[in-house]
Amino acid sequence: MPEDELSRSSHSNPGKSLINGIKTNPASNSPKSSFSVPVGPPVYVDLAYIPNHCSGKNTDPEFFKRVRASYYVVSGNDAANGEPSRAVLDALLEGKSQWGDNLQVTLIPTHDTEVTREWYQQTHEKQQELNIMVLASSSTVVMQDESFPACKIEF
């Protein structure tokens, strides 16, 4: 948006401001949780990396209501630190249930963990209802002295 248009839009809407390019009303922008999410339309992306190794510190259902991705990458292989977090995986189900349309979503875990396996088994019916597919990797990448699972994603 050119600077003169941005300036006009700010002056023509007294009491409203722009946060990350989204018009908000400061009086009604109080967070419902500890996360501050500006009021505005959802954002559609092809691929989203769930923040902080899928820890519950930065992600809640509001994240999944607003950030609508075709693919979500779930990292985390540290059960001692709650990564990946079962609460975040459940938040995906809750957030996706609010979308209003049944777009296909693919969840890509970077590690096979007990948390993701249990979540997958316990919520499989809900995943199918919400059109969520969880990728399991059968491919392995070998580099020098290290090997790890891999997923191929095509857009």
From TrEMBL:
InterPro entries in alphabetical order: MAP1, RibonucZ/Hydroxyglut_hydro
Gene3D superfamilies attached to this UniProt entry: Ribonuclease Z/Hydroxyacylglutathione hydrolase-like
A GO biological-process term: axonogenesis
Region Disordered: start-end pairs: 1-35
Polar residues biased stretches: 22-35
GO cellular component terms listed in the entry, alphabetical order: cytosol; dendrite; microtubule; microtubule associated complex; neuronal cell body; synapse
Superkingdom of source: Eukaryota
GO MF term set: actin binding; microtubule binding
Name of protein: MAP1A protein
Species of the source: Cephalopterus ornatus (Amazonian umbrellabird)
